[in-house]
Every structure is written in C-alpha cells, then in structure tokens.
Design a protein that fits this description.
- By secondary structure, the chain is α+β, with helices and mostly antiparallel strands.
- The protein is built from 13 helices and 19 strands.
- It has a seven-stranded antiparallel sheet. A five-stranded antiparallel sheet has the order 5-6-10-8-9. It has a three-stranded parallel sheet with strand order 2-4-3, with helices on one face.
- A hairpin with a 4-residue loop joins β5 and β6.
- α12 crosses α13.
- The longest helix has 18 residues.
- It is globular and about 65 Å long.
- About 50% of the residues are buried.
Length: about 475
C-alpha cells in the first residue's frame, strides 16, 4: 500500500521524472542538474510521508529520479549477507530471503509495509517487528554504494566512516544517492508465533487498563517478543484497540510467558498462528492467512487517500487519565489511527550515537498518529489537520521533552523547514533537526559540510552544512 501526501497537488510539478535502469543514467542526470542549477529529488520506489522524494515546495525547477527499476536483490547465504539495490521494496527483499533461505531460515529487521522503498527506509532508520531483537534496519548495514554530488560512486571505504554513519538513519538523501546497500541478514527460528487480539471501549475500561499495563510489559519483555498496539476510532462511535505480536518461538513457549507477564490480555492458543518469518510478514501486512508469498511482490495497490502523520517517543508510562483524554479527541475524527511500537531489548544496548537515530535506551515506545481522508478542498483538509494538531498538542505533557523527539521516517514538516535559498544555518535547522537526531545533528551537519559543501543535495528538511549562516 502506498500513500499519497495531502498537499502534493498544489506543488510545482517536476520538469522530468527519470526512471533509470542503470546507474550511468543517474550520473548523467545528476551532472546535468548540477551544471544548470536544477534541483534533484530521489525516490526509492515506495512512499514518502511529506512527498519530499517526488515534489518540491521551494524549487521552481527540479527533476525526480525514481529508482524503482533498480530493485535487484542478491543474497549470499554462506556469509548471511545481501546486496540490495535502493529501488527494491521491502516485499521484494522479504520474498527473496524467504525463497532462498529455506534450509536455514533468515530474515532482515525492517518495516512492516511491503511497498516501502528500501533506500529511504534505511536512510531514516527502519523500525519493524524485529527491532527489539536485532535493532533497526540501519543498524544492520555493512556497506553501501553512494553517488556523490560529483557523480562519483563510492563504497564505505572511499566515502569514509563519517558519511557511512550519516546515511544510516540521518537521511541519506542529504548526502547523495544511495544505489545499493549491503545488509547483514539475521537468523530466525523455523517456527514463529503471531497474534492479534482486539478490545473496544464498549467493554468498560478494560482497553485503558490493558494499554497502561502494556507500556511497561512491552518494553521489559524478552527481546524475542514484540507486541505493538494499534488504536482506531470507528466513525466516532467506538475505540478499538488491537495488540499485534510476533514471537520468535512456538505457541507452547509463548502462552506461559504471556500468562506470567501480561495475564490481563487473556491470550489463548486459539488466538495464535504459528508459521515462518515470511508468513509473519504477510500477517502484519494484512493479507489473508494462506496467501502466497508472491503477494509481497505486488506493487499495484496504491491508496490515494490524503493523510497527515506525526510521531512521538515516550519515556515514562502515560497515566490512564492521559489515555482517556486521547480517546475523547480520537472520537472527534472519523478514522484516526494511533500506533504504539515498543523499544527495549537490543535497542537499549545500542548507544545513541551508533547511528544518527538516537532514540534508544530510556525510550519505552514510539507513537505514530495518523489521519486519512478522501474529500477534496482546502476546507476539508484544514479540518483534519486542525484535529491532528489538537491531538498532538494534547499529548505534549506525556511524551519526551527537551527535545520532544520525532522519527525521521514519519516525516513532519510542521516541525520546521529550511529556507528556500538553501542557506539555512545549523541553529535555524536545529529547530527540527534536534527532534529527529538530538546530539547527533551536529555531527550530521559537520559531515555534510565536508562531503557536500555546495549543498547540492537539499530539500525542505535536508541536513544543512554547518557553516551556513
């Protein structure tokens, strides 16, 4: 499923959309743009929350390089690695891993949606069901090929460790065009367990108490267990809370664990499904049980609903009264979604400066707020955006502070944008940069100053060179 950003129809259209089948075509386009003062946008084939990979609100002239044809996946099972071109989608990677690692099952820790483009996903971090066990997608990258502003193709050694660090979670499009990633695959058991259990507020305050208990349980649980919470309001009538889980083991091992640590959920073996890691990716993507793996390759389902998203990180459990206020606001909107995804496990053991993604130890979970609508017109759009801002403002006392953190892959231009002339200073950009990267933002800016001093790779929230005033 690919989402269309809400404001793209009012932005200037690109001069050209290039769909290269070879890196030399990208090189020619890049050099042409550089010589003629035309901005370049890079799309890795998936979706973009604010449309920055395929639209520009600042440039009069720009072209889009869409990498979806560069989607080759080459696995080396002996070394447990894979070279994957940046235009490949997660579904294409997952399919290749599932088909080729049958005797010794392997996986890659990345996102849930199969149509997400791998290039941008890793460039922003990459959360998923295996994050508590193996870290982010960006934590599991061994090498990369990157095209710089001069059209050179560099690997990890030739680009240098600072740049290699920066492109793994710091917004790779600020530094160049990632052509391919070398990934470290991870081993998984042949049989895993997954479940979805739903409750509604019509069942009294059970949902509220379950979420309150979930906050500590999901963070402190064994790292083999991932349990996220998806909250939906249905046509302003009721709130549905769904607990979705992946366990790296059998039902026989999961049930005693849940009865001991989260008995309030009332999980039974009848709620659970056992299957392979590949089957779990279908489960979380919403496909029916028994669907063939080939559906992971289907890129034709495009949802053109307009939407707006925001994100938060939580460091202390939110009180039940806090969730009660959230429910009240959620009931004012037709179909809002709030997703809570737990951290802990290996994420707590990785230092916040290991990659640019700093939200590690001390963070209980991430929140994504999402609202979608189908109507046209500015008035309709503003109504939904106003609701989103109301919810976001309400949550401020309950989430991380100094700064109020945000996740780059849930891009939010409301946090701040660069100036149109491309000369935003580090201090000006820190308004939004510190929320995504905390103390890592300065190192990103220093790296940008050395690697792309002319700021060729720029957009509304690109990393600015440190020396810009």
């Amino acid at each position: 499923m690919r989402y269309m950003n809400n404001a793209t129809s009012r932005r200037p259209q690109p001069l050209l959309i290039l769909t290269p089948s070879h890196e030399t075509e990208i090189q020619s386009a890049l050099l042409c743009c550089r010589d003629h003062g035309v901005e370049l946008r890079i799309r890795s084939g998936g979706h973009d929350y604010e449309g920055l990979s395929y639209f520009s609100s600042s440039a009069s002239y720009y072209i889009v390089v869409d990498l979806f044809n560069l989607n080759d996946v080459q696995l080396d099972l002996e070394s447990e690695t894979a070279w994957v071109q940046a235009g490949a989608r997660l579904g294409e990677l997952y399919y290749a891993i599932a088909k080729q690692s049958t005797s010794a099952p392997m996986a890659f820790p990345a996102g849930i949606c199969p149509t997400v483009g791998l290039g941008g996903h890793i460039g922003g971090g990459g959360l998923g069901t295996l994050t508590r066990k193996h870290g982010l997608a960006a934590d599991n990258v061994l090498d990369a090929y990157l095209m710089d502003a001069r059209g050179r193709i560099l690997n990890r050694k030739s680009m240098g460790e600072d740049v290699f660090w920066a492109i793994r979670g710091g917004g790779a499009a600020s530094f160049g065009i990632v052509l391919s990633w070398k990934l470290k695959l991870v081993r998984v058991p042949p049989k895993l367990t997954f479940f979805k259990v739903s409750t509604t507020l019509e069942e009294g305050d059970r949902s509220n108490k379950l979420i309150h208990k979930w906050q500590r349980f999901a963070h402190d649980a064994p790292e083999d267990l991932f349990v996220r919470t998806v909250i939906k309001a249905n046509n302003k009538k009721t709130i549905q809370t769904t607990f979705e889980s992946l366990f790296l083991g059998t039902v026989e091992k999961l049930i005693p664990l849940m009865k001991q640590s989260f008995p309030e959920l009332g999980l039974t073996a009848g709620n659970c499904t056992e299957g392979s890691w590949a089957e779990s990716t279908l489960f979380f993507s919403g496909y029916k049980q028994g669907s063939p793996l080939e559906v992971l390759l289907d890129n034709t389902e495009i949802q053109r609903a307009k939407f707006k998203a925001k994100s938060d990180f939580v460091t202390e459990p939110i009180p039940e009264s806090g969730f009660e206020g959230m429910w009240e606001i959620a009931m004012e909107e037709d179909k809002p979604i709030v997703i809570l995804e737990p951290f802990g496990g290996r994420m707590s053991r990785i230092h916040e400066s290991y990659t640019p993604f700093p939200h590690r130890k001390g963070y209980l979970y991430n929140i994504q707020y999402l609202v979608k609508w189908e109507g046209d017109g500015v008035e309709e759009e503003q109504r939904h955006l106003k609701w989103m801002n109301k919810l976001y403002n309400y949550m401020e006392p309950y989430v991380s502070k100094s700064p109020r953190a945000a996740y780059l892959n849930y891009r939010d231009l409301d946090l701040g944008t660069n100036s149109v002339d491309g000369k935003t200073s580090f201090s000006e950009a820190s308004v939004w940069g510190a929320k995504y990267f905390k103390g890592n933002f300065k190192r990103l800016s220093e790296t940008k100053s050395k690697f792309d001093p002319g700021n060729f790779f720029r957009y509304e929230q690109s990393i600015p060179p440190l020396f810009h005033k």
